[in-house]
């Protein structure tokens, strides 16, 4: 497959920050650091980093569609490992690290909602957080803070995050050739929609109180 050239429809390199981000993520597929970059982003997003790994996963699947299974697997493993870091932060570093992170994301009410939702739904509450736009990083920190059972937490994380990333990568593998022109033309809108889903996730958790 030929290397993607990061250009706009006019042939000029885009100056839009979101477009530059897309072009930057695509270039990792042609470097030895593609998988490590995806793993680092997936790991960090599960505990403290605000940018979801889906953007990089989609870009890499577009560039190397035959590697979609491997990409999704790396994304899942790193995300679950990052979730364990979030759990550890909530468990032992709440005052020094966890609480400032929650405050940074203005998620105090979300943490309380997580506690109530977990008490009512248990395993399924964590699974929903891992699979949906509900902010997983808040769940990982809150799970450690409230001493949720670790085994169900890990299982729900594997199923939820794996289901999400394998679904995204699989859809790109099956439909990438058809949807790639639209996504590249309207990438700014697509990223905005992804961010809106993340914000909606916070609202959903707060409403579950």
How is the topology of this model organized?
Blueprint (H helix, E strand, L loop, with lengths): L16 H11 L6 H12 L8 H10 L4 H25 L1 H11 L3 H14 L1 H9 L4 H10 L4 H36 L1 H21 L2
Order of helices and strands: HHHHHHHHHH
Unreliable stretches: 1-13
| Rounded mean pLDDT score | 76
Write down how many β-strands occur, each being a DSSP E stretch of 2 or more residues: 0
The span between the termini is 50 Å
User: Approximately how much beta-strand content do the residues carry?
Assistant: under 5%
Structural features, described:
The chain is mainly α and 209 residues long. The chain has one domain. Helix content is 76%, strand content 0%. It has ten helices and no strands. The N terminus is likely disordered. Keywords: Membrane, Transmembrane, Transmembrane helix. InterPro entries: DedA_domain, VTT_dom. Pfam families: VTT_dom (PF09335).
């Amino acid at each position: 497959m030929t290397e993607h050239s990061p250009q706009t429809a006019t042939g000029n390199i885009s100056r839009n920050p979101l477009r530059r981000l897309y072009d930057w993520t695509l270039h990792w597929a042609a470097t030895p650091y593609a998988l490590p970059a995806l793993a680092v982003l997936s790991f960090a997003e599960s505990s403290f980093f605000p940018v979801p790994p889906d953007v990089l996963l989609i870009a890499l699947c577009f560039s190397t569609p035959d590697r979609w299974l491997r990409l999704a697997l790396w994304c899942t493993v790193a995300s679950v490992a990052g979730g364990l870091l979030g759990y550890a932060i909530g468990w032992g570093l709440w005052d020094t690290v966890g609480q400032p992170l929650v405050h940074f994301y203005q998620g105090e009410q979300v943490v309380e909602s997580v506690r109530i939702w977990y008490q009512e739904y248990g395993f399924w509450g964590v699974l929903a957080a891992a699979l949906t736009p509900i902010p997983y990083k808040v769940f990982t920190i809150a799970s450690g803070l409230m001493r949720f059972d670790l085994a169900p937490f890990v299982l729900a994380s594997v199923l939820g995050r794996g289901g999400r990333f394998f679904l995204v990568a699989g859809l790109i593998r099956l439909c990438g050739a058809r949807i790639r022109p639209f996504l590249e033309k309207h990438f700014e809108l697509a990223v905005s929609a992804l961010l809106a889903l993340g914000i909606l996730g916070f609202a959903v958790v707060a409403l579950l109180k």
